[in-house]
Amino acid sequence: xxxxxxxxxxxxxxxxxxxxxxxxxxxxxxxxxxxxxxxxxxxxxxxxxxxxxxxxxxxxxxxxxxxxxxxxxxxxxxxxxxxxxxxxxxxxxxxxxxxxxxxxxxxxxxxxxxxxxxxxxxxxxxxxxxxxxxxxxxxxxxxxxxxxxxxxxxxxxxxxxxxxxxxxxxxxxxxxxxxxxxxxxxxxxxxxxxxxxxxxxxxxxxxxxxxxxxxxxxxxxxxxxxxxxxxxxxxxxxxxxxxxxxxxxxxxxxxxxxxxxxxxxxxxxxxxxxxxxxxxxxxxxxxxxxxxxxxxxxxxxxxxxxxxxxxxxxxxxxxxxxxxxxxxxxxxxxxxxxxxxxxxxxxxxxxxxxxxxxxxxxxxxxxxxxxxxxxxxxxxxxxxxxxxxxxxxxxxxxxxxxxxxxxxxxxxxxxxxxxxxxxxxxxxxxxxxxxxxxxxxxxxxxxxxxxxxxxxxxxxxxxxxxxxxxxxxxxxxxxxxxxxxxxxxxxxxxxxxxxxxxxxxxxxxxxxxxxxxxxxxxxxxxxxxxxxxxxxxxxxxxxxxxxxxxxxxxxxxxxxxxxxxxxxxxxxxxxxxxxxxxxxxxxxxxxxxxxxxxxxxxxxxxxxxxxxxxxxxxxxxxxxxxxxxxxxxxxxxxxxxxxxxxxxxxxxxxxxxxxxxxxxxxxxxxxxxxxxxxxxxxxxxxxxxxxxxxxxxxxxxxxxxxxxxxxxxxxxxxxxx
Length: 721
Ligand SMILES: [Zn+2]
What we know:
The protein is of the alpha+beta class. The chain is built from 21 helices and 20 strands. Strands 9, 10, 11, 12, 13, 14, 15, 18, 19 and 20 form a 10-stranded antiparallel beta sheet that branches. The protein has a 6-stranded mixed beta sheet with strand order 1-5-6-4-2-3, with helices on one face. The structure holds zinc ion (ZN). The site of zinc ion has 7 residues, from helix 4.
């Protein structure tokens, strides 16, 4: 996938510095071939509509915004979350937060942390900056390298809210000239989008959804120019007044705001205590919560405690599927379930999706698999020097689903006793597996086949769950059948546990890449030119999102063993100590060889070394050739390994196995409980993840075998004595 363009970009970047020269932060969000209009991801319905000239979102007036009500976020509320590929990238997270705050300050759009709402916006780290249009089933914004700016995120959120580009409006030819000869291969960024609606708001030169005049230029010349006086207005700076106006019309903000006010009043009148609610939301943030809770993780996993208040039966936070207030339905329809914690708590019938449908199989929806997160795209700014983006889908960052109800079924008429050995509900096997046969009489009745040992040749485990009482029923509400406080001894083994990653610092060394950094810092450049300075003069600017040097884990026998790059041109372990049978050779003389598998090592433009070892291909990574190993030069005691993906882009290994050897001939797999240990590794591309070897390894050669990846690239350090 290394196009001529990519090579040209690389050659351009061959300056004396390791890092490329800074890019203008006001550059357009340059985009990928498979995106639409530059940085837009469309769902298949929208793609079809585009191809056929059909309805891109309802309406027929032909302007810049979607009109279809189904594409608007209900009540203007967007539940959001940060994917693990982004959550440690401070710049990206703060850009997204700043942009969300801007939207909230200027419009009625509100952002709430996603819990179990069906639709949500997920911020991820992919290549480039892009966003889906409107509320779609798997709405995402990518904060790629170079997208970590507030205005870029404000723009991408604009897509998610429901906007196409201003220059894609049907009436744009009245307002701008398009210079097709100056546009590179991204002509479609200047296509018009039919059948959209801008609600009577005139063309806006200062829209955040308007590309800059030089966007997608192939020759440095402007690609558009205004046909009318701009009165000093500049596109793509911030959410404009007309952007806000159009949002208001699209969402009917006056009504939303009035509803919110009305509801706030009711709330006040009704004297619900809005003060301290220690459990901000009595909902589970993960669909595995019930099963984790049942296996006792509430008491020994901080993640579970924090994210599963409902399943963990946190004080004052029981599932209680009733509305305690007559206004609950009102509040719910005005979006207050998401906005006000106390409403979530006291209006569970209206708010809690676990209560909806009155059926215990109603568990939080499973998101569709993330199949198109890793489309082959062109990076945001020039160098397309990433190895071929992977063809496989990334690991779904959601933990595997174990569909377990937190409650028993609703009331069962006593007369409706099932015949023996029949399950009346499809969820029976899951309930049985989760131990409900033992502590829920209704499950026992409904799920004789799954619950009664006799129905299964007596092979079902006797679910002798410690329990004393039947659930308390509240009216017609489902029973609050929480698991007994002691997890059942014979309970199911959880199929997944939260992945708890131990991070070791930030993964980027604080270095100055220019000898004048100190001087510039003194002259105030860190503040006046933060984009460039914070990347190139990290030390002088006292940037906090980097590591002062090669970090080490705490404790004894945890010294770095010399793989890492320390910011100088000398390596403690020589290049010859590294080996892999096959690695990626991306072209133009660049190599992703084993000797580059050094923690912190960035792309080296002087020596054409990719900052990481990368397997030759997906297939190669799966084969016998798919490993990278290091010779520590003598037998050492090794206690930890830190791994990192490839800097800047998003390749990473999310799971790996280890083999080791003292003589370089016989390699043993690292095992636990008689099985090869699979280590949880990286989700983002930069933050080092630390794994401890239980019981240490004594070896001279350590071999890392990728087990799961989006594209297998690795940097590493070992620690020991
Ligand atoms: Zn865009």
